[in-house]
User: Which sequence fits this backbone?
């Protein structure tokens, strides 16, 4: 909340740089907590594999955000054509979707098929609406084909984050206290996916003055993710360590 307030009070020319800075700090924090979790817990079981996938995805997105910040500092405009930034984001989608897959596999008994169908239909309709709007009103016929494909990939790839995240959130709504890390990590990815669509629309339409608003959502995404990883480190891993110690005795 305080970061949003500061961003609102800052002069227009400082808003973007400030939000990018705090975004990278939050991304670095989430990446560090993820690495700590992997080192402490290891790679065994669904939890280990899940948080390994999550941490790799976070680090890839963090690196992409660092490059964006570097480009901003040296006054290089972001290009719509594909770049290393897009590659890092796209690979990150794969690892983050794998994280969600592990969660859904663990809670499959709690998942209601009707919820899956409804959420899937709504998500597809939402992404279809975003893509259609972009194709109809935002792109010029002279735009580079690769630029168009890359820009459309973001809302399409968000399908693999929005639908599973929403399913997990609904499935854990009554039991989130027992599954807080996975609940928060799914909420984080859900927030990110929604922000992606807004960012792409503003970026393609040339509303660069509004991009800092969506970057606040990305900041919130990393903060929520940090909360998930902190909880996981503080309670889940600590409890497992104590249990192993007691068992050995």
Assistant:
């Amino acid at each position: 909340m305080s970061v949003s307030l500061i961003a609102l009070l800052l002069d227009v020319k400082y808003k973007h740089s400030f939000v990018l800075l705090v975004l990278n700090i939050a991304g670095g924090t989430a990446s560090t907590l993820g690495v700590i979790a992997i080192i402490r817990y290891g790679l065994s079981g669904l939890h280990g594999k899940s948080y390994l996938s999550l941490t790799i995805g976070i680090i890839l997105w963090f690196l992409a955000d660092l490059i964006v910040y570097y480009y901003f500092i040296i006054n290089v405009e972001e290009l719509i054509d594909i770049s290393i930034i897009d590659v890092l984001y796209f690979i990150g989608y794969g690892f983050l979707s794998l994280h969600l897959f592990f969660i859904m596999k663990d809670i499959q008994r709690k998942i209601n098929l009707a919820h899956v169908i409804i959420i899937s239909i709504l998500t597809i309709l939402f992404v279809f609406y975003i893509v259609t709007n972009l194709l109809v009103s935002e792109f010029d016929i002279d735009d580079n084909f690769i630029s168009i494909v890359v820009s459309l990939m973001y809302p399409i790839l968000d399908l693999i984050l929005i639908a599973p995240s929403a399913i997990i959130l609904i499935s854990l709504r009554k039991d989130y206290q027992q599954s807080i890390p996975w609940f928060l990590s799914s909420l984080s990815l859900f927030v990110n996916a929604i922000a992606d669509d807004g960012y792409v629309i503003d970026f393609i339409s040339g509303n660069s003055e509004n991009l800092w608003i969506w970057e606040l959502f990305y900041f919130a995404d990393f903060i929520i993710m940090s909360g998930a990883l902190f909880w996981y480190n503080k309670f889940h891993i600590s409890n497992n360590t104590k249990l192993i110690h007691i068992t050995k005795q």
Summary: The mean pLDDT is 77. The chain is about 80% helix and 0% strand.
